[in-house]
Amino acid sequence: LRGQRIELGEIEVVIMRFSSEITNCVVVKYDHNNLEHLVAYVQTKIHFNVNILRDQCTNQLPLYMVPSLFILIDQFPLNPNGKIDRKALPLPDFSLLSLNVTDIVEHPHTKIQQQVSSIWCQVLHLESIPSINMNFFKLGGNSLLLIKLHHAYQMHFNQSITISDLFRHATIIDHAQFLEDHQITIERQWESFHITQGPASFAQTRLFLDERVRFGVASDSVATYHIPLVYEITHNSVSLERLQRAVAAIVEKHKVLRTRLIFDEKAGELQQEVMDAISVEIILTRVESERDVQKILYDEETNSRLFDLSEGKVFRCHAIRRSTNIDDDVLFPCDILVFNFHHAAFDGASIDIFFHDLQQAYSTDRPLSSCALDYIDYSIHEKDINMDEAKTFWKHHLNDFSNQHLTIPYDHSPTDKNILSGRGTTITIQLSAELVDHMLILIQEHEATLSQLGLTTFYTFLFKLTQQTDLCVLTVSANRTRADLENIIGVFVNTIPLRLIIEPHSTFISLMQSVKDLALTTLPYSNLPFQDIASTTNISMLQTLFDVETIQNDEIALDSQILLHPFTSSITDPYSVAKFDLSCSFHYNTQTRSIIVAMNGASDLFETSTIELLIHRFECLLDQLVIKSSSTPVCEFSLLLPHERELVDQFNSGDELLFPLNILPIHEQFACRAVEHPQKVVLVLDDQSLTYAELLQTSQLVADHLMNEYEVQPGDIVGEQLLGKIVKDFFNYLSESCSVINIYAPAECTISALCYKIGGKEHEIPDNVPIGRCLPGRKIRLLDKYRQQVIPDGRSTGEIYLGGIGIFTGYFNNPEENARVLVRLSDNDGHFYRTGDLGRITTEGQLLFAGRIDFQVKLRGQRIELGEIEVVIMRFSSEITNCVVVKYDHNNLEHLVAY
């Protein structure tokens, strides 16, 4: 079923176990509309709530094994042999399935229920609602449609339920009850001031300053707040003359598209002024190749000179002619239209408004009806909203947040967060139809939104990537909380920080419930401008953002015959802009039931190859979470890609033993040989030679000297980490044929478990010499603190666990310490020793030593390896013979001191 191998008998056993009243059961697979479904026929004399049976199946079976429909039957039809006649079973009603009906059917029976049901039909574009008990989200609703429903209630009933209440109780019967019980009259509609000058909105101010301060400092900065909408003509032709008139009508109606922003030095605030008339002329460009198209589109997105906020130039229209047609007045199929807006005058919710008005203006050629409220009116009204309660909430929500930087695997260190170019890389992937099906089923089962599922996955991804549990991710709020703002073009969106403390051993489902609760808790306070949240809580600009874009209909009809379709270039160019270090977004097309995931990273911080790796890790994690989400703790999921798993499997174990286990250690072999052949020559150097007896005596003298003069005892650490600098000195005294081998293992693992052969003098020797791979018979694991495999990328750090032969049996008379350091990782691998050493696996499968856990400290929220600092200092000069870095606390501030 959808790629999964299923034993139908297992499902039947779970159903039969549900009740003694069930006397028989059969599960059948059907194909409907090119989709595969399981249907459970249940023989029972009594009728019960199918939802309870479905819940039991969900708890005891993987999600893909839960039947789509349950049909209760008094008696199964039998064939002449007395067996169930499957062909005679009643056919399922798949119309119920398409509406996700899982509730008892109950029709509206009060007037207000009928009114609410009618509003639902309008918002969800359905002819009827099968039952007033059905959940809004199971009928295809999402958070944007819920806001539309909220606006419809305001207009129809002149009263308002909070959006949080609508979400928590998302059925017709509950909404009707709320409207009856809570006679809350909404505030009067905002009135227009009929002005052309006034203060800029909070959102305009945020974007204006952000563009100039955060991104305007770097010399190579690009525009970060352009919104280009790119469409290809797919059917019929477009008259440029009519299109020009339609564009002019839109600019006339929506004054924000001809509004300039100027900073008032005296008042110390940003002001806006509506210009009397601004002509937006359609630019026409002929192109010869796809590369020419790509250059134009990149320029539209990144060229900061295209718009001038101080002159009111915030909207432009660009026609790209690819066809051989020479008529300058008409565009034909394959030609492209670019409608480009500056974000200071436009947001995501404005897109539908713009195309609705464009279609009306182009097809009728009549003036558009004016707006009852202009954007400048909103800018004044929003400043009258009391934000005290919201400020208190955000201060509490972000109280004690460490404001630490996430330890994301940057390629370039974020040394100065104030200097960013705004250049970015965006990599996209389309999720498989099977995975999307699982995701949509999961959110319906748990009455969640796609945004909540995606955000939960992103939190889990960041947790697995960084091992940090206190996470704060930015999300976007539409912020159109009033019905009278629904049809106005402008920038209303707000960025809000959602802080979540992850419990690593919680399941994905429980984590998603926490995200749902978090979203509902923050929703009433999402209108507090981000700049006020930042100043109230002292948080800096956060690094990550997650967003979902829902596409209801991607085709645009300019009239009954002209179709525009979103343009996708045949040349894949990942270069774009980046407002944050790392952002992730879902683009969900409701018509095709497809999801595209986009991962965007700042080019100042990431190479393109790293973003590609990150998005594939995200996809891999999403697949695991959705399919295995019922009971597995999130800390046990993996970000390893298939090729990395192969690398880790090869790395984890040495070759099979090529020698007997009863062989003596080398020092004992030497002692035996010295007893057998004391006078035999063992070493020859130039004209000198040593016998076994002489060498044994000399080595014992050295041992006595160490023990007597330096108080060295057995078990004391007398070596040091092998650095490239030391090895280079070795080769100055060695012959060309001599090799240097770096061998690693603690005394508890009989001194040697891994080794790395270092090249000769002519080879480049790394500063941090690898400790290599397993010796024969040894086993190694590099694990995080939840004992999960660390990514072999040369960056991710984990603790070294050693197993196989040579592992000691424990410390004498110290059972507590033995229980701590000798652990079983699986039933088949025996004991592993926790070394307390840290390491990293390179992409070539070599292990790098990265210091001790004891030397890993947290400084102002950052996890730091003191050994890394010491290596950099040692590299500075050959005159530096040793170095140690220590952490001190002084006046409640943490400092590092290098000796």
List keywords for this structure.
GMP Synthetase, Chain A, domain 3, alpha+beta, 35 strands, Chloramphenicol Acetyltransferase, 899 residues, 5-stranded mixed beta sheet, 5 domains, 31% helix, Non-ribosomal Peptide Synthetase Peptidyl Carrier Protein, Chain A
Account of the 3D structure:
The protein is α+β, with helices and mostly antiparallel strands and 899 residues long. It has 24 helices and 35 strands. It has a 6-stranded mixed beta sheet, with helices on both faces. The chain has a 5-stranded mixed beta sheet with strand order 16-20-21-13-19. Strands 27, 28, 29, 30 and 31 form a 5-stranded antiparallel beta sheet that branches. Helix 4 (111-124) crosses helix 5, helix 9 (240-253) packs across helix 11 (350-364) and helix 15 packs across helix 16. The chain is globular, with a radius of gyration of 34 Å. The two termini are 64 Å apart. The model is unreliable at 98-103 (pLDDT under 50).
